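Chapter review: from sequence to fold.
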Amino acid sequence: MITDGYQHTSYGLVTFSPTSPDCGSSSPVPTVLDASLGESEILEANVEVKLFPVPFENSLKIVLEEDTEVAIILLDINGSVMLKQKFSGSVNIETHKLTRGFYFYQIIGQEGLLKSGKVLKN
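The token string follows.
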């Protein structure tokens, strides 16, 4: 069971609904984290995203099919943001400071969510 602090609780699929003070609206902005493990491919706006290796140890590589600017958000199992980083094309994220366990990720492009899931750090 995972709770996000907004009374959203789910098994296998975690839904966060943060409110952005920058948008001038108090309505929630839905964000979904798919809790599938491994390398799955979700296509949105015709952009393919791959994360590897899974499980990872000291680094996690993310490769986009196109040279598109995106952001990755990495959260621990409590929903705390461990990393936010923008990149284009590909990036190699150093993860040696992260503890072992599962992490949820979101890769967000200009059109919205491109890929989400969870990965395991050994």
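Two observations follow directly from the output. Residues 1-44 have pLDDT under 50 and may be disordered. The radius of gyration is 14 Å.
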